[in-house]
Every structure is written in C-alpha cells, then in structure tokens.
Amino acid sequence: MIDEMINREGILENRCNKLRAIIWELAHPDEKRLEQLITRYAVNGNLNHDDVIYLYESHQHPNDILSDKKPKKPPLGVMPRDTWDKKRKNDLGDAIERYICYGKFVPTEWIQEYNEICDRQEKESE
Length: 126
Prior knowledge:
α2 packs antiparallel against α3 and α5 packs antiparallel against α6. The chain has helices at about 1-25, 30-45, 50-60, 60-65, 80-100, 110-125. About 75% of the residues lie in helices and about 0% in strands. The longest helix is centred in the first third of the chain and has 26 residues, at about 1-25. It has 6 helices and no strands. It has about 130 residues and is mainly alpha-helical.
C-alpha cells in the first residue's frame, strides 16, 4: 500500500513538472514556435482540444485574457412591462384554471394580481 502511494506521488510530481514546463514554454513563445509547441503538447496528450482552442485564441487576442473578460454582446436588458404582464396574466389564468378544475381554493392574491394586470392593460390600450 505504501509503495502504491509513493508511486502515485511520483506520477503526480512528474505530471506537475511537465505542466510547469508547458506553462513556461507557452508563456514565452515566439510566433513561429507557438504552433509547434501547441501541436506537440496536444499530440503527447498534455493538452486537450479545449486547451488548444483557448491557447490559440488567447495568443491572437492577448488583451482579452488580461482584461476583465468583457462580453462581446451588450448585456441583456429587462423584459418590457407589457410583455411581462401578458406572460404573467397567462400564467395566472392557467394556474387559476388548474385549481378550479381540481376543486382547490384559488388564492385571492392570484385573482387580485390578474385583475390588476387586466386593469393596467385596459388603461394602456386607451
């Protein structure tokens, strides 16, 4: 058992040394050597497909890696109120119908909210 643990520790230490060497070489490449390094490490099984893509992209756009990972698209805003009201009204109507079909008591808050949305939609349509 102890021999097995020592063997595992040796394997992990060897992997760490290899990864340290990979990181150092990839952090200090020249243009011509980058593709050779990435290909060599990928073929040897030290880098997977996602690692290769990441390294190529980070080398082509080095400022992206150092920045705060700014999104490429603007952030998504909020759903317009009238769209939200329509969806909420449908959801409330469906829930009320399900409760009635099963003979359950419909919470008054649901009915009040449904009526408020209906009133708001009527005012907006005027």
